[in-house]
Write a structure and sequence with these properties.
Blueprint: H1 7-14, E1 19-21, H2 44-53, E2 60-67, H3 76-89, E3 92-99, H4 101-108, E4 119-120, H5 132-139, H6 157-167, H7 172-188, E5 196-198, E6 208-209, E7 225-226
Parallel strand pairs: 2-3, 2-4
Antiparallel strand pairs: 1-5, 6-7
Length: 228
Amino acid sequence: MNYAVNRQGIVDNILKGTGLLAINPLPPVVWGYTDDLQRYDYDPEKAKQLLAEAGYPDGFSCVFWVPESGSGMQQPVVMGTAMQADLKAVGIDCKIETFEWGTYLDKVIVPPEDAEYDLMEMSWIGDNGDPDNHLYILLSGEQWPPHGYNMGFYKNDEVDALLREARTTLDRAKRTELYIKAQKLIAEDPPWIMVDHETQIVVMDKKIKNFKLHPTGPFRFEKVWIEE
């Protein structure tokens, strides 16, 4: 499915460059990031080949949940429709169902036995600039809802061990080494179709001075003034 979706096309034609193509669940602005890992370039013929090898030569049907809007979501319905078309082209027939954001969160942040979706769209905004805030919370087998936000129900014992060690280690160089190993393993065993990392864009009056975007998302105004 990663080979089936033209993610660069979504970034270029739908997001108009307001996102950076993602090859990794960790954004490149977060320390510990690596791009030295397995990639999934757009290759629908390879997607069809792998589907056939997996026992689905004629594809399969699925339900794809998409929010109408929401925190961190960019153009979820348009993006979801583009992905639906790309998956359809390799034989995967996804029925899109849309939900209001609050309802959506109640329906997707659930234990696996209560999950009613096959695919779902989600975004994540890191809180503190630490790799743990992305990799452990979203991809540790210990973080399946209701304990965390691993809504893809990913479970890899080797990744879990690396993430546990990294979050209890103080040395940043050692932590970086552990996170790089975890990223490489996740890339070989991807639970998501990773589309993009959003670029922060702010429209600002020229009278506002010294405002700087913060990499974790919040707006900080303690050193900002307005020049009349």
